[in-house]
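BUG: 3D viewer hangs when loading the predicted structure for this chain

Environment: internal workstation, default settings.
Expected: structure renders.
Actual: progress bar stalls at 90%.

Input used:
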Amino acid sequence: MALCQSILSIDGKRASKPVIQYLNNKQTDILMEQPDIASPRGRRDLAMLLLLYDSAARVQELCDLKVGDIRTDAPAVVRLFGKGRKNREVPITEPCAKVLRRYMQDNYLDMPECSDNPLFVNPQGKKLTRGGVSYVLSKYVCKANDETTANMPNITPHCLRHSKAMHLVEAGKNLIYIRDFLGHESIETTQIYAKANPEARRKALEIMDNKMNTPKMPDWNDDPDLTAFLKGL
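Structure tokens produced before the viewer hung:
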């Protein structure tokens, strides 16, 4: 028992937390410009990357999507099946909905009988895998670095989820909304984005500075009693 107590009293090793990797707004725009929308494959890739970012979906949530989980008519939403077997509906922007409509028309997925079909498939017609999504993303990251000055890191699909969360923080959105958007159980999980975002920290410091400003002190030269006292010394 004494030995067990000694072992339990040993402090746990503290490891440094990894830095959240994300793309800034300019890098995100450049990434979305890389697929060749003149080809069906390029339109599929753009639809996939844009939806992955716009909905902040986890990569497995994206792979599991069926055609019936998408509504492209206003208000456009996507229904995601996430952790803990929980569903959530996430709004998507009109530009994303427009790209998805075109992709679905290209592949005849806008028919009612296709509602149970996988939304994204590989060249063999099977549901796209996590590895397939990673391959497509890395291909366009390399293309962006070769053809532009974006200087993008070697990112994973989850980085697009981080990027969307960071951009929502930068836009001043309430953390409660961001928590629900991402499908987090606790607000503490969502707070990591506010803590990691330098722009959010800067705005918080500006607000604090404004609150701590002291009133302007009066000029002692305007106080006749003080002036008379000093002259009498």
